[in-house]
Design brief:
Layout: E1 2-5, H1 13-25, E2 30-33, E3 45-47, H2 52-61, E4 64-68, H3 71-80, E5 84-87, H4 100-108, E6 114-117, H5 120-132, H6 150-159
Parallel strand pairs: 1-2, 1-4, 2-3, 4-5, 5-6
């Protein structure tokens, strides 16, 4: 199962549309948290919001987690050792107040088990790459970045 989440602050129709199109072409089950977005998926199960328990359960059970580029989701994916693909909201598309998520992709992709995408093509490439490895080889290594030291590791990457 692939779990998709856009967070609670802003809708992210582009991510949901991209994943819905991907789900239409693949047999993998996809479950999405879509927030207040206008786009309603046709090819995946969805809910606007999830309680914390169900949200974390979906991350733990997912073979891959696809998310907006939010640190909370990256940390949650690392804690569950679930590979995560993060897609940034873009200012020029009216998806956010600024482009801090685009700037963050540069260092997010250096984290073990974190993959990045800015476009549908990049998202599809990442999904295909992870799917080709049967998901099992992409699980985050807890020895590369220990959960206790994740904040320090991220700070070091940002300061490079």
């Amino acid at each position: 199962m692939i779990f998709v989440a856009v967070g609670t602050q802003f809708p992210f129709n582009r991510l949901i549309e991209n994943m819905d199109a991907w789900a239409a072409q693949h047999k993998e089950e996809v479950i999405a948290q879509i927030s207040d977005g206008d786009y309603i998926p046709n090819n995946m199960k969805w809910e606007r919001f999830l309680d914390g328990e169900k949200y974390n359960k979906n991350i733990a059970e997912a073979s891959v987690f696809v998310s907006h580029a939010g640190m909370g989701n990256i940390i949650s994916a690392r804690e569950q050792q679930t590979p995560i693909i993060v897609m940034n909201r873009q200012l020029k598309l009216g998806e956010h107040r600024n482009d801090h998520q685009a700037d963050g992709l540069k260092w997010m992709g250096k984290l073990d088990g974190v993959y990045t995408a800015s476009t549908q093509e990049e998202l599809n490439q990442q999904l295909d790459m992870i799917k080709a490895s049967n998901f099992s080889e992409t699980v985050c290594s807890s020895t590369t970045v220990g959960n206790v030291n994740l904040s320090n590791y991220i700070a070091d990457l940002i300061n490079e």
